[in-house]
Specification:
four-stranded parallel β-sheet, Rossmann fold
C-alpha cells in the first residue's frame, strides 16, 4: 500500500496510474513551470502532487487553511497559470485568481492515459516552491529542485535506514517543508504514507489512535506538537505501549 487517506487505500500501481492521468492532462503546462495545488488532505492530494511532477512541472502548495489573500499573493508572485483545486475550494479562490483551474475529478483526467507520460526532465528541474511565513516581512518563495530533495532523502536513509515496511503519517501541511520529508521518506523507499486529516492533527488522542491503527513506524514532529505525547506518557496512557515507532524525528 502506497497511500492511505481515510477509507481509500492506493497501491503503488494505483497511485502511479492516477498520477499519470493527471500528468497527461497537465503536459501542456511546460517543464519548469509551477502548478498550484489547492486540495484538502484526502485521496486526491498525493496523486495530484506526483502527477504535477510527472508532467515536468513543480508544485506550489496552497493550503486551504491559509487565508485567501495569502494564497492570492503566492499565486501572483509565483506567476502560476494553472491550479488544481477541488470544486469546493475553487469558488473562494476566484476572488484572488482568474487563471485556469483544473478539478481532480474532471472527466478529462479520468479519460487520460494511465501510462507514463515520458516527459523529459532533469534533476535540476524545480520540484516545488514553498513560501515562508512572512513573519519578518513579505512571504518569500523558497525554490527547491529534484536534486535537493533526492540529496535530503539519501542522507536521511543513511541515518535511519528507510524500509519498505515503514509507515509514515503525513501529519504536517503540504505547504510546510516537513511534509516533503514525510511524503518522500515513505514513497521513495516503498513504504506507506497515511494522510492525517486536519482535525486529527489537532487532537492528540485521535492521532495516537491513528498511529496505533496504522502501525506507524516513522514519526516527524515539532517539539511543541510532541509535548502532547510526552504528557500522555506521563499520565500513563496505555495506548502508547501499543505504538510501533522506531524513530521520532524533530523539525521546525
Amino acid at each position: 500500500v502506497a497511500v492511505v487517506a481515510g477509507d481509500v487505500r492506493l497501491s503503488y500501481r494505483e497511485l502511479d496510474e492516477r498520477a499519470n492521468r493527471v500528468a497527461h492532462h497537465l503536459r501542456a503546462v511546460g517543464a519548469g513551470e509551477l502548478v498550484g495545488v489547492h486540495l484538502e488532505r484526502g485521496p486526491d492530494l498525493i496523486p495530484t502532487l506526483l502527477g504535477v511532477l510527472k508532467a515536468g512541472a513543480g508544485y506550489l502548495p496552497l493550503d486551504p487553511a491559509q487565508p485567501v489573500d495569502r494564497l492570492g499573493f503566492m499565486l501572483e508572485d509565483a506567476q502560476v497559470s494553472v491550479v488544481v483545486a477541488s470544486r469546493e475550494l475553487a469558488g473562494p479562490l476566484e476572488a484572488v485568481y482568474d487563471g485556469r483551474v483544473v478539478h481532480p475529478d474532471a472527466a478529462e483526467i479520468a479519460a487520460a492515459p494511465s501510462t507514463d507520460p515520458a516527459v523529459p526532465g532533469s534533476v535540476d528541474d524545480l520540484i516545488y516552491v514553498i513560501y515562508t511565513s512572512g513573519s519578518t516581512g513579505k512571504p518569500k518563495g523558497v525554490c527547491l529542485t529534484h536534486r535537493n530533495v533526492a540529496r535530503l532523502m539519501e542522507v536521511g536513509d543513511r541515518h535511519y535506514g528507510f524500509r519498505t515496511d515503514d509507515v509514515w503519517p503525513l501529519f504536517h501541511s503540504f505547504a510546510f517543508d516537513v511534509s516533503v520529508w514525510e511524503m518522500w521518506g515513505a514513497l521513495l523507499f516503498g513504504g506507506t504514507l497515511v494522510v492525517v486529516p486536519q482535525a486529527v492533527t489537532r487532537n492528540p488522542d485521535e492521532f495516537v489512535d491513528l498511529m496505533v491503527e496504522h502501525h506507524v513506524t516513522m514519526l516527524n514532529q515539532t517539539p511543541t506538537a510532541f509535548r502532547s505525547l510526552v504528557a500522555m506518557a506521563g499520565a500513563g496512557d496505555p495506548r502508547l505501549d501499543q505504538l510501533q515507532l522506531r524513530a521520532v524525528i524533530f523539525a521546525g
